[in-house]
């Protein structure tokens, strides 16, 4: 099967049909029309075997995650996702693998009305790079900068679930372990099929003063947002929303509350939104979340200065946290 | 050196400053403004070690080529390149490698006023993916479709040089071979530092009826353009422009004219433009080329039907050509 046949079979049918695509897959480049008065939002993120997923990871999950991590970036800008390019480097063409990969990617693309308008296929060690373009009304995008002392800090969803799921998935790969319980499965699902908060991000325009998506851990990403804003912040660990499945797993595994909080603060791969807003917007924010069926939780406050502190009943938490940050190219 | 330090040191200074970049590197996504009445053009292409370049390839060449191959796609649409995202997967952080890579990428980005507005770094087997966005006046983009029977077929530059250069570079890697002559060096330079025909592509708007960039070989890519146009075509091998360095190398190596023509027709990686235009536009096209200092050559004609034929004084050429096409995923 040659490249054009692969594209025709697997990729041409994938994603939403959009009236603003003048020219999609099949030319040297795609041609797209933006609404008047809008800005273009561009983002890219890659999944690399051995770094972002284990060898033999489920292709359906990879298809979902490759788009989800980019949707999360676009959501953090308060933008509407529109068009994607997909660059696949594959060691070999396995039609079963490609079918499942597309089965993970397609429903998410359709749900968010994202059209696949181009890409690239090459042979090599497995990696998946998505470039996602979106649109936002000019001047209204959310940024990392913009938080002010006195603002509250919020997070969506229940951070820490994906990191717990990743731990459990790695353990599951050991065949001698008995099949996982229902809450373990729920957490693995959170890792394999993260939910980008696209509608929430769009709803936050005009409400949030700053926003970032949580990919490297809530603590690290909140610090990035506050640094970009020229502010400091304080997170109250007691306010962190921990999910029922995470609490159940912690009981089963004998994990301490501190261990759960470390997962929530530094586990990463949550693809939740962390954002700031003036306290007067609390009720508007909660009304937005209720309308969307999303959970948002106030977890701290922005202050003057620089850096981020975490207050906790466990005095060791800040020290443990500093040794748990995540960077691909750090030590 | 962590990821943010790498970005600050190597990538933040890279490329053009553009007034239409509302937000560049350093947030979850870039924010960009398109001129009124324009369409967005999006393209991506990747270079993978072992597929598109040899291990230990010169990083300066890789930096140039990674952008050049994408500029060529944008040029084929008649668009102006504007903003790029760079996704690098690197086995390790070598500052010397990164410096040279950027030394190859930066001048080309600056020459074409392309701003680097985002990207991604990850550890893994070396690959370089560039996503390039450009703009074109709405409705004026060049496409593969649009050629009509009676149109002339043109190519820019001198196809075959890059393929000859690639052959010579592979031989040069054998240290026992003496240092290459001046025309061999010129051909290797054509492979390592292709010239995307950006200004020519923009100038062809309103003149060309269809256009494609030549990456997989003139014969294959011309056929794609004609197929998209619902036409057939005929290339006259005697009209193919062969460069002086290629002729000199052929004399030195004892290559036949047919071997040179095969390189020109199927060698690939030329990053020239192949396009069609009504015969009445010949003088306007040559005037454009002269203004830009580009070479364009009429090599054949569009006809009714399907498929592409090559006429040559060597009756074996068509058969040799069919066995020389290039596809990453074909056999």
**Total separate domains of chain A:** 2
Percent helix of chain A: 25-40%
According to CATH, what is the class of the largest domain in chain A? Alpha Beta
Mean residue pLDDT of chain A: 93
CATH architecture field of the largest domain in chain A? Alpha-Beta Complex
Provide the structure class of chain A.
Answer: alpha+beta
Biggest interface and which pair forms it? Answer: A-B, 67 and 67 residues
Count of discrete alpha- or pi-helical segments spanning 4 or more residues of chain A: 11
Oligomer: homodimer
Determine the CATH topology of the largest domain in chain A: Phosphoribosyl-aminoimidazole Synthetase, Chain A, domain 2
What is the name of the CATH superfamily of the largest domain in chain A?
A: PurM-like C-terminal domain
> What is the N-to-C succession of helices and strands of chain A?
HEEEHEHEEEHHHEHEHHEHEEH
Gap between N and C termini of chain A: 42 Å
CA-based gyration radius of chain A: 20 Å
Residue stretches of chain A low in confidence (pLDDT < 50, at least 5 long) are 326-331
**How many beta-strand segments of chain A?**
12
Largest sheet strand order of chain A: 8-10-7-11-9-12
Sheet with the most strands of chain A? 6 strands, mixed
Q: Determine the strand fraction of chain A and express it as a percent band.
A: 15-25%
CA-based shape of chain A: globular
């Amino acid at each position: 099967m040659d490249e054009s046949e692969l594209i025709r079979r697997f990729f041409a049918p994938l994603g939403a049909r959009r009236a603003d695509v003048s020219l999609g897959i099949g030319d040297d480049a795609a041609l797209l029309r933006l609404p008047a008065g809008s800005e273009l939002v561009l983002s890219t993120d890659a999944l690399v075997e051995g770094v972002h997923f284990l060898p033999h990871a489920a292709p359906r999950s990879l298809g979902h995650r490759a788009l989800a991590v980019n949707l999360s970036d676009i959501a953090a800008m308060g933008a509407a996702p529109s068009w994607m390019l997909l660059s696949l480097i594959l060691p070999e063409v396995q039609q079963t693998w490609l079918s499942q990969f597309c089965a993970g990617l397609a429903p998410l693309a359709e749900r968010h009305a994202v059209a696949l308008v181009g890409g690239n296929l090459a042979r090599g060690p497995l990696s998946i790079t998505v470039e996602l373009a979106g649109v936002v009304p000019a001047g209204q995008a959310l940024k990392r900068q913009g938080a002010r002392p006195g603002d509250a800090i919020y997070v969506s969803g229940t951070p820490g679930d994906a990191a717990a799921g990743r731990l459990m998935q790695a353990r599951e790969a050991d065949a001698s372990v008995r099949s996982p319980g229902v809450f373990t499965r729920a957490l693995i699902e959170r890792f394999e099929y993260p939910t980008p908060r696209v509608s929430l991000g769009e709803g936050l325009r005009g409400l949030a003063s700053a926003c970032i998506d949580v990919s490297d851990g809530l603590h690290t990403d909140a610090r990035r947002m506050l640094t970009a804003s020229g502010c400091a912040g304080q997170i109250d660990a007691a306010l962190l929303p921990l999910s029922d499945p995470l609490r159940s797993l912690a009981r089963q595994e004998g994990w301490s509350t501190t261990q759960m909080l470390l997962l929530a603060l530094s586990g990463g791969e949550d693809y939740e939104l962390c954002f700031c807003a003036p306290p007067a917007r609390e009720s508007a924010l909660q009304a937005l979340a209720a309308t969307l069926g999303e959970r948002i939780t106030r977890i701290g406050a922005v202050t003057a200065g620089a850096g981020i502190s975490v207050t906790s009943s466990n005095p060791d938490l800040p020290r443990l946290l500093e040794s748990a940050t995540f960077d691909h190219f750090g030590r």
